[in-house]
Design a protein that fits this description.
Distance between the termini: 32 Å
Number of domains: 2
Strand content: 25-35%
Largest sheet: 5 strands, mixed
Low-confidence stretches: 1-13, 19-85, 87-98
Oligomer: single chain
Order of helices and strands: HHEEHEEHEEHEEEEEEEEEEEE
Radius of gyration: 20 Å
Length: about 350
């Protein structure tokens, strides 16, 4: 895969994740890069259709538009989708064990002061089965131990997209009826996050904000985890669903030396994103990054470099959090994301 392809893939992935387009996933790509067959840089297979330059422009527009507005108006689904793009991965086969892969976001659940919210990790999936492969990764343990998945292994059997470019509808077929009702101990809000995790994950893999119809067999299923799904379901508003701060790099367990390159997304008061480097509970270094904006509708990119000169070798926790000018007097407190990093 050419550098041009890599940058385009990252830009599109971030566009449907409702953040400013970014090319700064090189650290992740370097760690997960595999050899790839050359392919035409301006065409990506998605849902059995070819996404041309016009779709690229549309995907970029998603990053600056209203993220709560779906690309189509969902309506009742009365039959299985006419285009099924993904089939199950053969047993014992890794969904990333293929030459032609793309980067995508997998959305997991973690706790915030406002309750459970979604955080994302990036992974590479086969381009020809990107939808189902991304959902399969959703059923596996995330890299970050602070995250969790509400979806058990083997939850999904098919995933598809019926449409052209960003105009269309996704389908997710469940393995069995065990996912119909809300499990004991799962709250309604946790159930909402579970359904939204699947929606955001398949949308990121498909690079468009289409609605999602859940199926059991060839028929729409009336509910998933106890929530109504008879008709296609759209993604909920970003700031009511995603954590207000999320790290892209570093990833969990990264080894660094000299400096730590940081990138993430946030929606924080005046764009202030505070950070700390912790040795246990001891603050070793702290300062703040400035995000590219803040407002009522999306997350904004932030980047920065932490100078590690003088920091002894060892394992540390890197923490970022949203600004809380009231000191907890108003609201629920800051959203937080952390990574374990090893300084050598």
């Amino acid at each position: 895969m050419s550098d041009h392809d890599e940058r385009l893939a990252a830009l599109l992935a971030d566009a449907v994740s409702d953040v400013e387009p970014t090319d700064a996933l090189e650290a992740i790509r370097d760690r997960t890069r595999v050899a790839a067959h050359p392919r035409r840089p301006w065409f990506l297979a998605a849902g059995g259709a070819v996404v041309a330059t016009a779709a690229v422009i549309t995907a970029i527009a998603l990053a600056t538009g209203d993220p709560s507005r779906p690309s189509t108006t969902p309506g009742p689904a009365t039959h299985a989708p006419s285009v099924t793009v993904d089939s199950p991965t053969p047993p014992g086969t890794s969904p990333t064990a293929t030459l032609d892969t793309v980067a995508t976001g997998i959305y997991y659940v973690s706790d915030t002061p406002k309750g459970p919210r979604l955080y994302r990790e990036f992974a590479r999936v086969p381009s020809n089965t990107r939808l189902l492969s991304a959902l399969e990764l959703l059923t596996r343990a995330p890299q970050d131990p602070d995250y969790r998945t509400p979806w058990p292994a083997g939850s999904f059997t098919r995933a598809g997209f019926d449409g052209i470019g960003v105009d269309g509808q996704y389908s997710i077929t469940l393995a069995d009826a065990s996912l119909h009702d809300r499990p004991a101990g799962m709250t309604e809000e946790e159930a909402r996050m579970a359904v939204q995790a699947a929606i955001f994950t398949v949308q990121a893999a498909g690079q468009g904000r289409g609605p999602v119809q859940f199926y059991l067999g060839n028929n729409p299923v009336d509910q998933v985890f106890g929530l109504p799904t008879s008709e296609a379901v759209t993604n909920d508003p970003v700031l009511e669903t995603l954590a207000l701060v999320s790290l892209t790099t570093p990833t969990e367990g990264d080894t660094v030396s000299g400096s730590l390159e940081v990138e993430g997304v946030a929606n924080s008061y005046e764009g202030n994103v505070h950070w700390q480097l912790l040795d246990g509970e001891k603050v070793v270094e702290e300062n703040a990054f400035t995000a590219e904006g803040y407002g009522p509708d999306k997350l904004y990119r932030f980047t920065g470099t932490v100078d590690l000169t003088g920091v002894p070798p060892g394992s540390y926790t890197f923490l970022v959090e949203t600004d809380d000018p009231s000191g907890g007097a108003e609201g629920n407190g800051p959203d937080v994301d952390t990574r374990t990093v090893v300084v050598r």
